[in-house]
Amino acid sequence: MMKSPAAELQPETEPGIATAEQGVVVLDGPDGLATTMTADAAARTGQSLIDAAAIARSQMPGSNDA
Question: What residues does 20 pair with on adjacent strands?
Answer without folding.
Answer: 25
